[in-house]
Amino acid sequence: MTVPKSHPRYLSLITRDRLVEGWKNGLVVTQGLIAHGRGEAFDYLLGEVTVDEARKAERTAACRMLLAERLVISVNGNVGALVPGEVAELSRILECPVEVNIFHRTEERVSRLAALLREHGCYEVLGEEPDAKLEGLEHARALCSRKGIFSSDVVLVPLEDGDRCQALKAAGKDVITIDLNPLSRTSKTADITIVDNLIRAMPNLISEVKDLKEDLKAEKISRDDMERTVSDFSNDDNIRSVLRSISERFSSSDEK
Ligand code: PTJ
Question: The pTM is what?
């Protein structure tokens, strides 16, 4: 069935179609469809828009990524199916590797995801031959690449698992995550949590990074300014503010 563009839930339905297509192509696991459903429920609570707190987190994340010495973008099945072009574009602008790192690991899924990311023109694709392990994890997401996640200082992990987020933190990395659930362990553990839908957050990150790069070149801002943006950011406060916005939205009598 073709979803008409006039449908009030066009974007949401198209996104579901993309995930189902990814599931048929062996990129997304069945559990990924369930995880997306949880994400959608939170997106509904946010009004399916990028809230101010997410904008702030996206700006801060863009600064942190530009300041990173060894940035890596970590990709799982849902991310590969939903935003492969955006992942590739971001990796080219930031000249950083993209590492396939999945929870339900099979070699076939890893190579399908890696091939897809290469097709979209990622700067560099890692993850097919893991040669290192993150301490403290007993599942497949511990497996990583020495020249990628293992030696990174900053990791962008759209859709993270809570325990790996903790393991990345324990390994001394700065973690930037995109998670529609402001109450998840990942959201609370990460350094910068973007409470936004992947499909909005990735394009926003790309435009923030592009703008910052231009402003740096034109000397409208400095690295010190970006460092200040990062150090002034409190993830806890930002999440608290998202939760307040959600509850205000629902306690408002105008809300239908
Ligand atoms: O591809 P694999 O094998 O690595 O498996 C991927 C899944 C997603 C199954 C795995 O990472 C998983 O089980 O994730 P969780 O623990 O369910 O966490 C997913 C989180 O992402 C939840 O907190 C959701 O609210 C959130 N989420 C789901 N869809 C989106 C989202 N956040 C942002 N944008 C979305 N589109």
Answer: 0.95
